[in-house]
Design goal:
Radius of gyration: 22 Å
Distance between the termini: 67 Å
Helix content: 55-70%
Order of helices and strands: HHHHHHHHHH
Largest sheet: none
Strand content: under 5%
Shape: elongated
Amino acid sequence: MVSKVSEGDGRRAEAIVEAAGRLFFAPGLAPVSMDALARELGMSKKTIYRHFPDKRGLLAAVLDRRFAAVEATLTAAAERAQGQPFDVRVQRFLVAAGTELGRLGAAQLATGRGGDPVVRRYVEQRVDAVIYRRIDELFRYGHRQGLLPAPPELLYEITRGALERLFTSRLPQELEWTAADLLRATVDTVLYGATRPAGTGAGGERHGAAIPAARDDDTEVRP
């Protein structure tokens, strides 16, 4: 429980945002009430409203802080992978991105935690800007360098769909895999395909994606 802060408005506002973040990102889908936040902080709702005029403004402050942390984590992951082979860079970045989506509570946020469509749209925009835009840029860079034969737009859609679906899937429980294992398997499949020999992957034998060659419509296609 956060103790009552009395060392200035800035410190008090920080304490409010910190406590609201813990409640907002806690497991479960129940809306976060200002009453619950006031109890967590040991202060009155009137005091909270002096710093944040409404709940939406408070949630925006919470999300700004959380997405700033996500962005810093992804930037650090990309910097650590500099100088590594491109497939290793992609794998590490996607695993980091997927991990951060999980920490954000993507499944909860997708349903609009708290029932506010404005907050939901805000979250979607920030996820696009902080996570998915970077993934798109990474694939486009690899394609320009001749490292990815498949269209980057296709890889982006596959990867985004896979990441989003994993957070609402029962596969982790059914396969008895950790979330990290499932993310790595997803990334590995996107990078190398589902039919490569076992034991190859990042840093090992590489297999280019099978891209269909252009053909005339009159060309006979045999099985």
